[in-house]
Design a protein that fits this description.
globular; two-stranded antiparallel ribbon; mainly alpha
């Protein structure tokens, strides 16, 4: 598996635009592009649901983002049943606790 860059961020909840701009790259699934913040379980679920909608990223960026999602999911106690990012998106998902509240 690809190395990860994700690190937990202590502040949770809704972030306004200014606060989001100040987040460290280490909280994003896609750190170089600063896309899909993984600051809490809700943001993690959103990142999984929208993974295939992220534009302007390479396959290696997706490899890193998926590794970051898996690391964040472990931190937040969420099971991700997909074993690689190719299983996310428009195709049918396996039963995934990350998609439920």
């Amino acid at each position: 598996m690809t190395g990860t860059t994700w690190k937990p961020y202590l502040r949770h909840g809704e972030l306004d635009t200014k606060e989001r701009e100040e987040l460290p790259e280490s909280v994003y699934a896609f750190p170089k592009q600063r896309k899909e913040p993984l600051t809490d379980a809700d943001h993690l679920r959103n990142a999984i649901a929208r993974f295939d909608q992220v534009k302007g990223v390479s396959d290696s960026d997706r490899d890193l983002a998926f590794a970051n999602i898996i690391k964040a999911a472990a931190h937040f106690g969420i099971t991700v049943e997909e074993s690689n990012w190719h299983q996310l998106g428009k195709k049918a998902h396996t039963k995934n606790s990350a998609h439920s509240s």
